[in-house]
């Protein structure tokens, strides 16, 4: 399991295991929190083409889908 802290999400870098459309390397570009400091929105950007996706940040914990950093 990847260790992911909601407070350290912004600007973190990720590598997707299953590459789709040559999108392999990603970075978190926006995180929004509610009044209890829980993540309500997480935007990830593909480095190759700058496409942005809203994801559930908890998906980043799955090592079968994501690796921390750019590898």
Question: Stretches where pLDDT falls below 50 for ≥5 residues?
Answer: none
Mean pLDDT across all amino acids: 96
Which range best describes the helical content: under 10%, 10-25%, 25-40%, 40-55%, 55-70% or over 70%? under 10%
The geometry reads as globular
The major β-sheet equals:
5 strands, antiparallel
Q: Indicate the structural class.
A: mainly beta
Distance between the termini: 17 Å
Strand content of the residues, in percent? over 45%
Oligomeric grouping of the chains: single chain
Question: How do the strands line up in the largest sheet?
Answer: 4-3-2-1-5
Q: Please work out how many helical segments DSSP would assign.
A: 0
Gyration radius from CA atoms, angstroms: 12 Å
Number of domains: 1
Order of helices and strands: EEEEE
Summarize the structure.
The protein has strands at residues 13-20, 23-33, 39-46, 52-54, 66-68.
